[in-house]
Write a structure and sequence with these properties.
alpha/beta, seven-stranded mixed β-sheet, 8 helices, 36% helix
Length: 213
């Protein structure tokens, strides 16, 4: 990485979280830092927390992904959380869905250049994707939960797990309350707010997990 950029050093926890994929995680983090300004991926103020707040934080979701699962990351943008999840869980397959051309092209370049075998990239809006076989759909900083459910639910209709994993912050309980009518209308079970990474990551991840009944 360039010494001119104020980039966070790799936390000790990274190796344990990524396991045999740690070199891939390092390579992805390097690309993300180097290309962020050009492609509008992360703001410069985020680089000092690039590992703890973005890469490791995203990878924590992988513990909720069973082997063999098909996962869609909607509005993937910089590949967050999809790429870190895919590196940490190589036995699942991930599809990154991103509507913006330059970001989709960047994602495709990163996946190809780094040789990440369990990731595909689709340039499209979520509502334009016709597949319904995704076991798990995830999103980070895309929309409030109510709107997010409308976007994500159709992608899981034909699967067995029918699970939504939404990375959220302190507003998670309020967003769940606001989404209550849609949750009931769509047939979802009671949302579960999960805190991942306690005792093993620099920052925890707050995830809302919802399963379609």
């Amino acid at each position: 990485m360039s010494d001119e950029l104020d980039i966070e050093q790799e936390p000790a926890a990274a190796a344990g979280i990524f396991g045999s994929g740690i070199d891939l995680a390092r390579a992805y983090t390097q690309r993300l830092a180097a290309d962020s300004e050009t492609f509008g991926l992360l703001g410069p103020r985020e680089l000092p927390k690039i590992w703890s707040r973005h890469v490791i934080n995203s990878a924590l979701l992988s513990e909720l992904v069973p082997d063999g699962s098909l996962v869609a990351d909607v509005g993937s943008g910089a590949g967050l959380p999809g790429i870190p999840m895919a590196i940490a869980q190589p036995k699942a397959h991930f599809t990154l869905i991103e509507p913006m051309e330059r970001r989709a092209n960047w994602l495709l370049s990163v996946v190809n250049d780094l040789g990440i075998k369990n990731v595909d990239v689709i340039r499209a809006r979520a509502e334009e994707v016709s597949r319904t076989d995704f076991d798990i759909v995830t999103a980070r900083a895309v929309a409030a939960l109510d709107k997010l459910l409308k976007l994500l639910t159709p992608l899981t209709r034909g699967s067995k797990l029918k699970t939504v994993l939404a990375l959220k912050g302190s507003r998670a309980p309020a967003e769940i309350a606001e989404a209550k009518p849609r949750l009931q209308r769509l047939g979802f079970g009671e949302p579960e707010i999960m805190t991942l990474g306690l005792g093993k990551a620099p920052e925890t991840a707050t995830v809302v997990r919802i399963i379609l009944q």
